[in-house]
Amino acid sequence: MRLKNKIAIITGAGSGIGRGIASAFVKEGAKVVIADWSEEGGKEMVEQIKKEGGEAVFVETDVSKAADIEQMVKTCLDKFGRVDILVNNAGIYRACNLHEMTEEDWDKIIDVNLKSVFLGSKRVISEMLKQGKGKIVNIASIAGLVGFAQSSAYCASKGGMIALTKEMALEYAPQKINVNSIAPGVIKTAMTKDMLDDLATKQFLESSTPYPRLGEPEDIAMAAVYLASDESDFVNGEVLVVDGGWVVK
Ligand code: NAP
After folding, report:
1. d(Cα 186, Cα 240) in Å, to the nearest integer?
2. Where are the alpha helices (DSSP H) in the chain?
3. Alpha-carbon span 22 to 33, nearest angstrom
4. What spacing in Å lies between the alpha carbon of 89 and ligand 1's midpoint?
5. What pLDDT was estimated at residue 177?
6. Could you count the other beta carbons within 10 Å of the beta carbon of residue 207?
7. Are 17 and 187 in contact (CB under 8 A)?
């Protein structure tokens, strides 16, 4: 087991990629905190893990709020006594032309996708410094590496996440805290459902992905297992692109 007895917090784990990561972590021996603002999805995930014999706890968390992050980490420490891994996965996407985007929408996307990484990492790093080791995995996007129209705040948030990953990696490498990001391509989840329900958009996304299928949450989960495990101790500040070849074209 690659994550035996590791304690992991996964944000946005009530749905999609976060769920996939939580399942894979539990299969590899981790105990997990499911942090999501969706109580329904989060509790359902905890029930599923318990049925399969794993250990998990749900904490209702809005990752853009410092008080919620504090509660999330406190729940983890109270239940499991430590935190070895944080996966900053919760995120939102809204398609909108830049000139029509409201300031509120811009702030919301930046807060949920980027400020959350600062808040969550800041809090767990304090614990990881005491523990002498830690792993942070940020779920970015290929939209942080290449441009996507109608995605200004989303691209900015994911590009910022990749830059912040490098900064944190450098700052905390001497204390054996690894910080890496994953840049998924198109993954079949609730986030992409509307796009994939539209035939023309689906065909565009499929034809832009050289590999002959779109991604599944499990594709990202296996990359996250690697970056959360001791196998990747010498990997730091990297962006692991998992996109079926979209950005190398
Ligand atoms: P998803 O199925 O919509 O799951 C995201 C989860 O995060 C949902 O449970 C959502 O709750 C929750 N969430 C949203 N805002 C939150 C907040 N402020 N606090 C706590 N939880 C919050 O999306 P996904 O596709 O799995 O995306 C996961 C991550 O992968 C995101 O960061 C996304 O940007 C990134 N990503 C996805 C793709 C893709 O193609 N799917 C590609 C590249 C990167 P609600 O559903 O109730 O809002």
Report:
1. 14
2. 16-27, 39-51, 66-80, 103-110, 116-131, 152-172, 190-197, 199-208, 217-228
3. 9
4. 7
5. 98
6. 8
7. yes
Q: Which residue is it, tokens 């809090």?
A: 123
Question: What's the CA-to-centroid distance between 22 and ligand 1, angstroms?
Answer: 14
Structure confidence by residue, pLDDT tens digits, 48-78: 999 999 999 999 999 999 999 999 999 999 9
Q: Whose CA is nearest to atom 3 of ligand 1?
A: 191
Domains, the chain, ordered by start: 7-185+219-248 (3.40.50.720)
- pLDDT at res. 165: 99
Neighbours of 104 (CB within 10 A): 8
Query: Which of 70, 67, 76, 72 has its CA nearest to residue 32?
Result: 76
pLDDT the model gives residue 209: 98
What pLDDT is recorded for position 188? 98
How many Å apart are CA 90 and CA 105, to the nearest integer? 16
- Name the stretches of the chain with pLDDT < 70: none
Tell me how far apart the alpha carbons of residues 249 and 245 are, in angstroms, rounded to a whole number: 7
- Does 14 contact ligand 1 (Cβ within 6 A)? yes
pLDDT at 66: 98
Structure token pair of residue 158: 């994911």
C-beta of 38 in contact with ligand 1 (< 6 A): yes
**100-116 tens-digit pLDDT:** 999 999 999 999 999 99
CA of 45 to the centre of ligand 1 (A): 15
pTM score over 0.70: yes
